[in-house]
Amino acid sequence: MAFAILQGVALYTYFTYLSFPRSQYLTSASQVNGEILKVKNEVTKHFNLAYNNTLLQQENIALRERLPQSFIPLQSGIVKINDTLFKQQYEYIAATVINSTFDKRNNYFTLNIGSSQGVERGLGVFSDKGVVGIVHNVSEHFSVVKSVLTESINIDVMIESSGAFGLLKWDGESPRIGNITGISNDMRIKRWTKVVTRGGSGIFPKGIPVGKVSKLESVEGKPLWNISVLYAEDYRKIQRVYVIKNLIKQEQEKLESLIPQDKATGQ
Amino acid sequence: MRIFLIHTLRFILFMFAQALLFNQLEVGLGIQAMIYPLFILLLPYDINIFLSMLICFALGAGIDSISNTYGLHASSAVLLAYLRPGIFKLFEPRDGYENTQEMNIYGMDSTWLLSVFGLMLLIHHLWFFTLELFKLNEIGFILQKTILSVPISLVLCILIQVIFVKKPSGNR
Questions:
Q1: What is the count of residue pairs from A and B with beta carbons less than 8 Å apart?
Q2: Which one of A138, A157, A179, B166 has the largest count of C-beta atoms within 10 Å of its C-beta?
Q3: Are the beta carbons of A11 and B71 closer than 8 angstroms?
Q4: What pLDDT, on the 0 to 100 scale, is given for residue A31?
Q5: pLDDT tier for residue B89 given thresholds of 50, 70 and 90
Q6: In the prediction, which pLDDT does B107 show?
Q7: For A117, which DSSP code?
Q8: Tally of domains within chain B
Q9: B-chain residues within 8 Å CB-CB of A6?
């Protein structure tokens, strides 16, 4: 009897957490575990220091190339004014991954920032090489990210050259390879074309790299491609990430909620 | 009182070793080394089954909470605690167990230890990976993970005993 109760509790937590996090007490977002993992990260973070420095340097170079100083003015007489044509849409928060796995069926990353730094459930997370995941659970100083190495991640992505779009999924086998479903097989897709985020759901901006098409197969009995994507980021050694906040996401959601639901297809 | 302290200390050590060290080792091929079944084996022989299940649940939940597995380890540990007395009964030596002895490599002979602990690890890993993948068409991968992980966990646990369990002096 006691066996049944304890098993029940354990299995209930396991199977319900995947869809919605009810509590933070049994996760690495809780205060105690967060502190433990922070200490662990203090010890292990130096192992990849050289590699991380190179990455940051490369990113700095890329950003520096876009500074006004690195452009030669081709036309003189243009005056720069503080324009009102652009409004900031995305805000970035830098974070460190303090705990991560890659060989489980559903892999979560713990970040060292939480609600006090402005993180909310549902924000996107990416690194300088590619997309990482979506924030799943937040406590005051820590947050847990549902990574792209999770079965039901469903980020909307597109093939960069053709614009064909589908949903990104993971089959749980290799941490380097994901799948895209929902692209119909009359589209012409070349191997090794780039895959980027589509920006449809307002979580990620358009054009954050995901990876490259590595294999094309047709799904049996359906007019669809099953596309394998070689991820651009190596999630086995990820450390530096950015959380991205869409400042006008609510506006998009509000507008899209006015679309009448299609009852026939159940979507 | 002394035995209570020993097991509390072991509980903490095994929890952190598993969560912070062995769960971070990601070897590939689906191999995952798990050492906390050794804690369950080393619990006192005559412990109340209800108490042992509670302890194991707490141990598993602690590991779960650090490594974001939400109840997988807790479920497997409780199952193991539930089956432990039955397995011991199955492999009972001809003249029974002595009440005071501990189930470590110095207290028991090696055949007994290999068969009992091997069986416990097999059940534990099979249950764990089945729950983790939970799909019928991935039974091959479940078996692959189980078959590759069990020997590694077994070897690790024996090494841990060789290194850390104090050899009883003289009175054998």
A1: 87
A2: A157
A3: yes
A4: 76
A5: confident
A6: 74
A7: G
A8: 1
A9: 53-54, 57, 74, 78
Any domain includes B134: yes
Asked if A10's CB is within 8 angstroms of B74's CB, the reply is yes
Q: Which residues of A touch B134 (CB under 8 A)?
A: 105
Which residues form the domain of B152? Answer: 2-164
Q: Whole-model pTM? A: 0.73
Per the model's pLDDT, the better-predicted residue between B117 and B25 turns out to be B117
Mean pLDDT of B64-93: 88
From the list A13, A25, A33, which residue is nearest B66 (CB)? Answer: A33
Average pLDDT over residues B48-57: 91
Residue B69 has pLDDT above 70, yes or no: yes
Residues in chain A with pLDDT < 50? 266-267
- Catalogue all structural domains in chain A, each as residue range(s) with its CATH number: 155-233 (2.40.10.350)
B20, B50, B66, B148, best to mutate vs chain A, most A CBs in 10 Å? B66
Q: Pick the range with the lowest mean pLDDT from A24-33, A209-218, B4-13, B119-128.
A: A24-33
Asked if A39 has any chain B CB less than 8 Å from its own CB, the reply is no
What pLDDT does A263 receive? 60
**Can you read off the two tokens belonging to residue A78?**
């243009």
Which residues of chain B does A105 touch, with a Cβ-Cβ cutoff of 8 Å?
Answer: 132-134
B169 domain residue, yes or no: no
